[in-house]
């Protein structure tokens, strides 16, 4: 069973394969930089930056059907808020990052034809 589910993306795109490919390609190309940003914010304790980055990323997770990760992202956003419990973020983020990496590996294999060659 796949970790992702493209039903929402299919519905949203009206079945437009080119649009779906564009969205999936965008997600796969941009996710590593989001992870890097989240890692940096976590290491430096930049909770506002962390909250902003995870907030922007959560809808992308939902679009490609990584709904449980979108829920985890929402939880991380709450924890990183002004009145959040920052002490819970590292462990929660570790689980999120591990599951996201696994999903990205799977999607990169399934959609390798959408990835631009690295120069």
List keywords for this structure.
single chain, 119 residues, mainly alpha, elongated, 5 helices, Four Helix Bundle (Hemerythrin (Met), subunit A)
Brief summary:
The chain is mainly alpha-helical. Helix content is 73%, strand content 0%.
Secondary-structure topology with pairs:
Blueprint: H1 7-13, H2 17-44, H3 47-63, H4 67-79, H5 89-110
What does this entry look like structurally?
This protein has 119 residues and is mainly alpha-helical. The protein has a single domain, classed as Four Helix Bundle (Hemerythrin (Met), subunit A), CATH 1.20.120. The chain has helices at residues 7-13, 17-44, 47-63, 67-79, 89-110. Helix 2 packs antiparallel against helix 5 (89-110) and helix 3 (47-63) packs antiparallel against helix 4 (67-79). The longest helix has 28 residues, at 17-44. It starts with 6 loop residues before the first helix and ends in a 9-residue tail after the last helix. The mean pLDDT is 94.
């Amino acid at each position: 069973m796949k970790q992702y589910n493209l039903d929402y993306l299919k519905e949203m795109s009206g079945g437009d394969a080119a649009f779906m490919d564009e969205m999936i390609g965008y997600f796969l190309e941009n996710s590593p930089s989001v992870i890097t940003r989240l890692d940096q914010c976590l290491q430096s304790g930049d909770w506002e930056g962390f909250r902003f980055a995870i907030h922007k990323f959560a809808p992308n997770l939902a679009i490609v059907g990584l709904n449980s990760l979108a829920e985890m992202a929402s939880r991380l956003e709450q924890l990183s808020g002004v009145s959040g419990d920052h002490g819970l973020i590292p462990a929660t983020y570790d689980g999120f990052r591990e599951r996201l990496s696994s999903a990205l590996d799977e999607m990169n294999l399934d959609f390798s034809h959408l990835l631009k060659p690295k120069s």
